[in-house]
Please model this.
Amino acid sequence: MRFRPGASGNPLGRPVNIPDSDILYLVRVLQTILVKAAAQLRNDAKSKVNT
Model:
């Protein structure tokens, strides 16, 4: 089954017309989360090596 934009089976369950400003904000939030998660993983790996 191919995904068609505007199909009723929208995975987000909401209209696709999200304003650009919202998308930029969400991208920034996700980027921040990923950066923090990566730093946390690096710290966890370092502490495991040191013990």
In short: The chain has a mean pLDDT of 80. DSSP finds one helix and no strands in the chain.
